[in-house]
Amino acid sequence: MHLKVNDESLEVAVDAERTLLSVLRHELGLMGTKYGCGEGNCGACTVLIDGEATRSCITPVTSAGGREITTIEGLANGDELHPVQEAFVEHTAFQCAYCTSGFIMSSAALLDRNPSPSDAQIQSALSGHICRCGAYGRILKAVKSASGEGGAE
Amino acid sequence: MTTETTKGKYNVIGTRPIRHDGYDKVTGRAIYGADIKLPALLQGAVLRSPHAHARIKSIDTSAAKALPGVSAVITSADFPGAHDTLIDLGEGAINFRYASNNVMAGDKVLYKGHPVAAVAALDKNTALEAAALIKVDYEVLKPVSTVMEALKPGAPIVLEDLEGQDLGEKIDGQTNQANHIRHEFGDVEKGFAEADIVIEHEFDTAMVHQGYIEPHNATATWDEEGRVTIWTSTQGSFPTRRQTAGILRLPDSSVKVIPLEIGGGFGGKIPSYLEPVAAILSRETGRPVKLLMERTSVFESTGPTPGTWMSAKVGVKNDGTITAATADLRFDAGAYPGSPVGAGMMCVFSCYDIPNTRIDGYDVVVNKPKTAAYRAPGATQAAYAMETVVDEICQKLGMDPLEFRIKNAAKEGTRRADGPIHPIIGAVETHEAAKASDHWNTPLEKNGSDGKLRGRGVASGYWFNIGLKSAVTISVNEDGTVALTEGSTDIGGSRASIAMMAAEVLGIPAEEVRPHVADSEGIGYTDVTGGSRTTYATGYAAHDAAQDVVVQLRERAAKLWDVEVDEIEFANGSYQSKSDPELRLSHKELASKLGSTGGPVIGSASVDPEGAGGAYSTQICDIEIDPETGKTDVIRYTIVQDVGTAIHPSYVEGQMQGAVAQCIGWALNEEYFLNDDGAMVNSSFLDYRMPTSLDLPEIETIIVEVPNPGHPFGVRGVGEVPIVPGVATVANAIHDALGIRLRTTPMNAGSILAALKAKK
Ligand code: FES
Ligand code: FES
Fold first, then answer.
1. Is A55's C-beta closer than 6 angstroms to any atom of ligand 1?
2. C-beta atoms of A132 and B19 within 8 A
3. CA quadruple B262, A98, A40, B124: dihedral positive or negative?
4. What is the distance between the alpha carbons of residues B222 and B120, in angstroms, rounded to a whole number?
């Protein structure tokens, strides 16, 4: 089938019932997207499909065919990291960082449709993500600083 | 907010540089255990028991073996049978024979999820399909799930060969009581007789899981020379090497462990589950084999922290002096002995100076997964009992709970109830900082919106912290940067804190230290990242290795200028001659001259420091309860903690906030929910609900720094004590809101509603 991942057009031969997560990781070697639960409950596997944050672990690969898929590896603009990526580093918005790709992808999608979200809007956009290291406060700060409001601390 | 006593004392320590692995972590570049790829790699699957307790009558693997694409199917018969040897893993001991039975069941399965067979195949689906074709004939046995049931005469016996102990005596006959130990000091009867008020209560707490988001994983190859290489995410390459070697009956030196990035552990990634299984599959197939755990199995088959039954009794005089205290802590160990009850006993009374104490601890086996360390293992449960009793006492006395804690606080020289004498500790300073906090001084409006009820709770906790072994080498590059090699796997930013300590000694910026976590053959023996020991002990080793570099660089400078070494002094990052001020080179300048003065300089250190300093945390929590639904919202939370010296304050605060997030979940929601057959029924993130951003307020942190004299920079451990008082803090807030004491966790909406109903 045909997949468009991080601006590249690819032909992959895969079983129709495979998940997008499994194809990204095992067929395309895009290991930045993580498995945490496989049931849509933790957000670690979040990617963008046509700009929308989507849990790849419960997305059949067939439903992503022909659509724009962006993973953490494709979020930067060339050499320039996405502002959310920069902000996560600056605000130490992670400990173990296993949840980080997922949080970053959802945050990027949020800022794309709403460049200046309120705290409540950020929290609700990220409410499907679990960070067991409990970095929520820092993640909120990071997303805020990457938003239209700029780096207000 | 920070009460930083070290401000201005150091150049690097106390600053907040960007962590060295920061960009790898936001670009997907960091390689975690599941990300490893090898040529000819096979995928594995593990078949697990659906029963909590059953005898395995037979296993038929023929259909699985016959499936095209399957390379090997193994059971416990393929394991060598490990020796009955007890080893210490840093946060708890294991017996190799039990550990081997835990990774692959022998004649009995002891919990739902216990592995019974494993498969290696060309791809994951084939492996899963083959596992489903394995026929296991079980004789289902009655399970026993709680400590108190397991201790009853006639209870189902979990381990038929367990030799139980009671106060040093062997128990006759079969038992689930692995051990009963006691610490006694003074005369508790006399102490209670002197008391004006005596309060005693019983408690039950549910088993909970660490909940790291990255599931366990292991990839192994077994080569022609019998050498095993393992790629995994672990809290310690060397402890993983020991466990794997012990289970496989190989010399430690035949096993090499390559640690990859680790997606959380909190103590739960100290034990090995998949590593020995992947190794045997590789031995059978001659190819590398990868095993990845599913979320369900992480809950059902890896070590949570014990459920408990506890009682605590405290006597005080009317002036608020504690005269005596006793505690009885009974912890479920899971399927094999080794709960953290000993650590709970070390902590239960250690916030206080109590003249007469007795602590009983029971380690009890039950049909649940073998417990593992979880952040200050055992101490959180113990603090729930002690700190809620103390809260009730303060209320009876009409005494401010922080004043009470300051009055009775353990200090330097106080004897801990289990024996050791406290060195310099920061209990009083921690309580004082809590007392001075904005939170404590801002009265809480007791009535919330829409008839909601509010309450404030406070509690304290202690964790002893550990030292153990760490090694570090530092090699100086010609451009003046240094490469630092350590054996401590980095769960939450320890690369940064370790590098900062080396930078401080060498007089260079943190960014010029390049930290690297080596495999078990790339660095000297290093114990687990656990016990709050990494920044302490590996930091100690980094300090000493950097000092070693300084000694060698002084020698090089002496050689360069043809003077005696004693002539060279090192100050402010420069090497200079004492007598000739013209002779002066910065670290960087001198580094560029190493090639012509004898070649590279490598400093090294291997330490086993004894001076780990205990740590205290005091926490304040405001909650709001909806009496209609029983739902509790935490509306404000402040954590105060003595950290010794905060090396990288952002990561210290991160540990404090992360622990609070976990203990709020523990207090209000989390539990292993078992059905009548003893099987866990909520083994998904949906049903085992952990806090998300919507469940937590901003967690305010107050760092207190009472430097630990047992560390060159005063470091105490940071990662564990912040969870200790949390469950008790929430319980005390619930009492303040409702006038009801809940002595069972989780204190969820259901139990709050039931308690409100009972009160009416
Ligand atoms: S792995 Fe997809 S939501 Fe958890
Ligand atoms: S940083 Fe570890 S789970 Fe979020």
1. yes
2. no
3. negative
4. 14
* CA atoms lying within 13 Å on the CB side of residue B622: 21
**In whole angstroms, how far apart are CA B174 and each of B163, B234, B356, B367?**
8, 35, 34, 15
> What distance, in Å, lies between the first and last C-alpha atoms of chain A?
46
Task: Give me A27's structure tokens.
Answer: 């067929």
HSE of B713, CA atoms in CB hemisphere, 13 A: 33
B658 touches chain A (CB under 8 A): yes
Tokens 């202690």 locate to B462
Q: Burial, B704: exposed, middle or buried (Cβ in 10 Å; 0-12, 13-18, 19+)?
A: buried
State the average pLDDT over residues B276-301.
98
Give the number of the atom of ligand 2 that is nearest the alpha carbon of residue B213: 3
Residues 6+ apart with CB under 8 A from B449: none
Q: Which top CATH class is B10-30+467-607? A: alpha beta
Query: Shortest CB distance from B685 goes to which of A31, A41, A140?
Result: A41
Q: Which amino acid is at B172?
A: D
User: Can you list the domains of chain A with their CATH numbers?
Assistant: 2-74 (3.10.20.30), 83-146 (1.10.150.120)
Give the other-Cβ count within 10 Å of B151's Cβ. Answer: 18
Residue the block writes with tokens 């090294």: B604
| Predicted confidence (pLDDT) per residue in B734-754, tens digit | 999 999 999 999 999 999 999
Tokens in use for A55? Answer: 């849990």
Q: Domain B411-463+614-759 falls in which CATH fold?
A: Aldehyde Oxidoreductase; domain 4 (3.30.365)
Ligand nearest to the CA of A58: 1
Helix, strand, coil percent values for chain B (each to nearest 5)? 30, 25, 45
What ranges do the domains of chain B cover? 10-30+467-607, 411-463+614-759
Q: What letter represents residue B125's amino acid?
A: N
pLDDT at B704 over 50: yes
C-alpha to C-alpha distance for B125 and B420, rounded to whole angstroms: 55
Cα B414 to chain centroid distance, Å, stands at 26
**Structural element, H or E, at residue B333:** strand B322-334
The answer to whether the beta carbons of residues B589 and B574 sit under 8 Å apart is: no
- For B355-443, strand residue ranges (E) read 357-365
pLDDT at A153 over 90: no
What does pTM read for this prediction?
Answer: 0.97
H helix or E strand, kind and range, residue B327: strand B322-334
Please calculate the CA angle B342-B469-B497 and round it to the nearest 5 degrees.
100
Distance from CA of A66 to the nearest CA of B (A): 23
Give the pLDDT confidence of B637-653 residue by residue, as tens digits.
999 999 999 999 999 99
Using pLDDT thresholds of 50, 70 and 90, give the confidence band for residue B759.
Answer: confident
Amino acid at B98: Y
0.90 surpassed by complex ipTM: yes
With a 6 Å cutoff on the Cβ, whether B654 touches ligand 2 is: no
Q: Which one, of A62, A94, A96, lies nearest residue A107 by Cα? A: A94
Please state, in angstroms and rounded to a whole number, the distance separating the CA atoms of residues B682 and B443. 39
Domains B10-30+467-607 and B411-463+614-759 share a fold: yes
A1 and B CB contact within 8 Å:
no
